[in-house]
Amino acid sequence: MAEVERVSIPTGALDVTMYRDDLRRQPTRPVGHTRLPTAVDDAVVVLVDDVLFSGRTVRAALDALGDLGRPRAVRLAVLIDRGHRELPIRADHVGKNLPTAADERVRVRLEEVDGVNEVTIVRDGQSSPETAEHG
Amino acid sequence: MRHLLSAADLELASATEIFDVAEEMSLLQGRPVKKLPALRGRTVVNLFFEDSTRTRSSFEIAGKWLSADVINVSAKGSSMSKGESLRDTVLTVAAMGVDALVIRHHASGAPRQVTQWIDAHVLNAGDGTHEHPTQALLDAFTLRRHFRQTAPTLRDFEGKTIAIVGDITHSRVARSNVLLLNTLGADVIMVAPPTLWPSGVDSWPARFCTDLDEVLPIVDAVMMLRVQRERMSGGYFPTAREYTIGYGLTSQRLEMLKVGAAICHPGPMNRGLEISAEAADAANSLILEQVAAGVAVRMSVLYSLLGGADDTPPPTAREPLG
């Protein structure tokens, strides 16, 4: 984005563990890092997630963000929208809509983290995943 | 982990996890909304049979910042002062539907006993001369930060020598600290006059020494213990002045420390007795950092005990109260 638009956009990380609605359904979850580069007050904040599924993580993220400040607007960008929403939430920017069955799992791997750009659909109990998309 | 009764309950991995979460929790202090919803709907009771300011208030703030409902019950002005037994008090509180009980009691072992009576999570906030595990956690958390800032290594406590100086016999902080620091990989030296060595000292995972001046030049941190006048029936040392000469961190002794060696004290301090004002206010004193870490570390402990699924066993039939 910096290359095309010639602006640098501050990026941070939001850990939403303590805002999840399923904390009591499993043993205590480890907590990740929340780091914001600047104050979010009056800023346009774009939440980015790899896979949009039930919408519950986004709900938690909106609550977490609200405790950190009052953004002018919040937008949602996801790499994959796999459907099966359980809350009234939609993404503003979608990389790819990927129809899935509810019992499948979608795994996104990124070059910066995993050394490869790849989205795979894994059916529970299946050893070799079908690769849906490369590059 | 269901209860936190002793620093011995903590393994390296679980202590590290508590520190990492506490590191995140400490960021809350600078945020506009000092609140996380993780313990919404949980009830925490602080049951204090002994006076306490910093431990009780930091447990209270920790619970509230995690959105738990926190109630303080102190021995004064409650039915405990009317002669109610510990068991009846605890069962009464538990019957109101409590998820965690933070307990401080003058009898060593009281929190462990309480776990036999109720299903709620029990946190030991200091029992007699036995243990004070959350104090040990916040001491170690503060030291870990200090070591990371001054000389970062892969394992924070590996190769570090830490002296614990003073009234070891009466100090629950000392016992918890020895156990935890040993788990974390530090080399611990206890320094005290022989009269203040507890019985069974050979089984402690630490070295013992009676000469403070011998120890100070080799340690990376020195932890001064409070001389507990209220637990002293006399005879442990001749006079307060004598104690200061032998075991106080005086301004002269300050010079003997390695550059950057940390000074800790669990508080409240007797300035001029076990620690001089110069040492307490020195640049490498972590005493205020210790207090500040109290809330973050206790939030982390409460989260690790109460933040997940309820593994409470089904209620069992009990003898009726009273």
Structural notes for this entry:
- The complex is a heterodimer of chains A (135) and B (322).
- By secondary structure, chain A is an alpha/beta fold.
- Chain A has helices spanning 2-5, 56-68, 111-114, and strands at residues 44-52, 73-81, 93-97, 104-109, 118-123, 130-134.
- Chain A folds into 2 domains: 2-99, Rossmann fold, CATH 3.40.50; 102-135, no CATH class.
- Chain A contains 3 helices and 6 strands; from the N terminus they run αβαβββαββ.
- In chain A, strands 1-2-3 form a 3-stranded parallel beta sheet, covered by helices on one side.
- In chain A, β5 (118-123) and β6 form a beta hairpin.
- Chain B is built from 11 helices and 9 strands.
- A 5-stranded parallel beta sheet of chain B has the order 7-6-5-8-9, covered by helices on one side. Chain B has a 4-stranded parallel beta sheet with strand order 2-1-3-4.
- The model of chain B is unreliable at 314-322 (pLDDT under 50).
- With 322 residues, chain B is of the alpha/beta class.
- In chain B, α2 (54-65) packs across α11 (287-306).
- Chain B is globular, with a radius of gyration of 20 Å.
- In chain B, 35% of the residues lie in helices and 14% in strands.
- Chain A binds chain B through residues 15, 17-19, 23-34, 63, 67-69, and chain B through 17, 20-21, 24, 27, 31-33, 35-38, 66, 303-305, 307-310.
